[in-house]
TrEMBL record:
<dbReference type="InterPro" id="IPR030873">
    <property type="entry name" value="Protease_BepA"/>
</dbReference>
<dbReference type="Pfam" id="PF01435">
    <property type="entry name" value="Peptidase_M48"/>
</dbReference>
<keyword id="KW-0479">Metal-binding</keyword>
<feature type="signal peptide">
    <location>
        <begin position="1"/>
        <end position="25"/>
    </location>
</feature>
<feature type="binding site">
    <location>
        <position position="199"/>
    </location>
    <ligand>
        <name>Zn(2+)</name>
    </ligand>
</feature>
<comment type="function">
    <text>Functions as both a chaperone and a metalloprotease. Maintains the integrity of the outer membrane by promoting either the assembly or the elimination of outer membrane proteins, depending on their folding state.</text>
</comment>
<comment type="similarity">
    <text>Belongs to the peptidase M48 family. BepA subfamily.</text>
</comment>
<keyword id="KW-0574">Periplasm</keyword>
<dbReference type="InterPro" id="IPR001915">
    <property type="entry name" value="Peptidase_M48"/>
</dbReference>
<dbReference type="InterPro" id="IPR051156">
    <property type="entry name" value="Mito/Outer_Membr_Metalloprot"/>
</dbReference>
<feature type="binding site">
    <location>
        <position position="134"/>
    </location>
    <ligand>
        <name>Zn(2+)</name>
    </ligand>
</feature>
<dbReference type="InterPro" id="IPR019734">
    <property type="entry name" value="TPR_rpt"/>
</dbReference>
<keyword id="KW-0732">Signal</keyword>
<keyword id="KW-0482">Metalloprotease</keyword>
<feature type="active site">
    <location>
        <position position="135"/>
    </location>
</feature>
<keyword id="KW-0378">Hydrolase</keyword>
<keyword id="KW-0802">TPR repeat</keyword>
């Protein structure tokens, strides 16, 4: 699905802090502050609520990559690791930010964010998996909750007040530390960084998760060493090193720990290489430069998997609006691997741009029978249908999908657009309310529902549903205030 398809409703961070300070405060979670379990102040239920509210704040203020193919990839990888972790108390959610800065972070409720730059810097999937395993360990050990509890005892601050700066610190350490300076003493501000014991524990637990999931244990020390070497002499370290200090002793400990396990030589991962190529082709640089870059890599054989390099080249032609060349490359890849959703997504975009709706719909219809409710297939199918003005098909696909995936931002946003094209005014406003709610804008959501209610004078059942949803949003807003 084309990255520009989603209409992102962006609120400024200042707006978020003003309108949902409690939500942000309790939600702002940082990677570095951690501990281990059983927290008296923060129950698991509260952590979940904080995590949900924080995720809404992140959606509203940060450049989240709303790309079904990449979302599916990072969640498949992350959840494969979670299956081999102990102390899992939530359903984890992994997401990506369009940011070349090297960083990853975790916060309440099993939410883990990764900057796109971290993936493009990793040489293999084991390196990426080592970072995700480390973040999963921070969550399962409840480091953040224990840290926040300890600080709430020693500082004249509410947990909510501390969290506001903490979430900012996770995403943008320079800005976050500056914000924290205004509310915390210097010593307390410094303690926002992960403590040495927290990092050591996350490294140890993360290594176990990594190895038990079948990845190379050397992924962790290799990535540490690479990061340390690249930024050793720079005046501005990456965000990840500001929140996750990396002294030489930590690199040595990681290497020694990896040597306790048998060496594991793994073949390159096609999905990892495709995800990396997709990020480079669609979220970095420009089409013309990327065509040259991937073409040179193919000519010189500088790739781990040739299909991934060709995929990057095809996407680069697409970004440069050379659709026939893009179609030739992607069609060749798809013919050899017809169920590969990276290729399916790319081909869908290419066919839509050329207004070749029938072959796109035919391809996606067949896949939908094999993989019903798969997010890549369903969202591409619905997007193609609405572009081809088959609005009933699009709305049916999205309504069914949202029954199971109620908080899928892309699906909610697309369904709003479909209802608008169908001139279903009440449904459009009701659906727009769901989009606002996913961004933490409950008052805007309630306003949209009132508009929807006024447009359904003759539909008693829908009016009852709207009234019920208004009450639910009001309760969610009150719940945040009580936190």
């Amino acid at each position: 699905m084309k990255k520009s398809f989603i209409t992102i409703i962006s609120f400024s961070i200042s707006f978020l802090f003003a309108t949902s300070a409690h939500s942000l405060a309790t939600d702002k979670n940082q990677l570095p502050e951690i501990g281990t379990s059983a927290v008296s102040t923060l129950s698991l239920d509260k952590e979940r609520m904080y995590g949900q509210a924080m995720m809404r704040s992140v959606r509203a203020s940060q450049p989240i990559i709303h790309d079904p193919v990449l979302i599916e990839y990072i969640n498949d990888l992350g959840n494969e690791l979670v299956k081999n972790a102990e102390g899992v108390n939530y359903q984890f959610q992994f997401f990506l930010l369009n940011n070349k800065e090297l960083n990853a972070f975790a916060f309440f409720g099993g939410h883990i964010g990764t900057h796109s730059g971290l993936i493009t810097m990793a040489d293999n999937e084991s390196e990426l998996a080592s970072v995700l395993s480390h973040e999963i360990a921070h969550v399962t050990q409840r480091h953040l909750a224990r840290k926040m509890e300890a600080q709430s005892r020693t500082a004249p601050l509410t947990i909510a007040g501390m969290v506001t700066g903490v979430l900012l610190t996770l995403i943008n350490p320079q800005a976050g530390f500056a914000a924290l300076t205004t509310t915390m003493a210097a010593g307390q501000q410094a303690s926002i960084n992960y403590t040495r014991s927290n990092e050591s524990e996350a490294d140890r637990v993360g290594m176990g998760i990594l190895v038990n999931s079948g990845f190379d244990p050397n992924g962790a020390p290799d990535f540490f060493r690479k990061m340390s070497g690249k930024y050793r002499y720079t005046s501005k370290p990456p965000a990840m090193l500001l929140t996750h200090p990396l002294p030489e002793s930590r690199i040595t400990d990681s290497r020694n720990r990896a040597q306790l396990y048998p060496n594991k030589l793994l073949a390159p991962s096609l999905n990892f290489e495709l995800a990396k190529a997709r990020l480079r082709a669609r979220y970095e640089g420009n089409g013309k430069d990327n065509i040259s870059m991937f073409s040179d890599e193919i000519r010189l054989g500088k790739y781990n998997i040739k299909q991934a390099a060709l995929y990057g080249q095809g996407l680069s032609y697409f970004e440069d609006k050379q659709y026939e060349k893009a179609e030739e490359i992607i069609n060749s890849l798809l013919s050899a691997d017809p169920k590969n959703l990276f290729y399916v997504d790319a081909m869908t975009d290419i066919l839509i741009e050329q207004k070749k709706f029938e072959p796109a719909l035919s391809m996606l219809s067949k896949l939908n029978l094999i993989m019903p409710h798969n997010q890549v297939v369903t969202l591409n199918y619905a997007n193609t249908a609405q572009t081809a003005k088959q609005y009933e098909l699009a709305s049916t696909l999205l309504q069914d999908y949202l029954i199971v995936n109620r908080e899928d931002f892309v699906a909610n946003d697309l369904l709003t657009k479909v209802y608008g094209k169908q001139k279903k005014t009440a449904q459009m406003h009701a659906q727009q309310a769901e989009v606002y709610a996913l961004l933490g804008g409950y008052q805007k959501a309630i306003d949209e529902l009132h508009t929807a209610y006024n447009a359904t004078a003759k539909n008693t059942l829908m009016q009852k549903r709207i009234k019920a949803r208004i009450l639910q949003f009001q309760e969610k807003e009150d719940q945040l205030k009580r936190l």
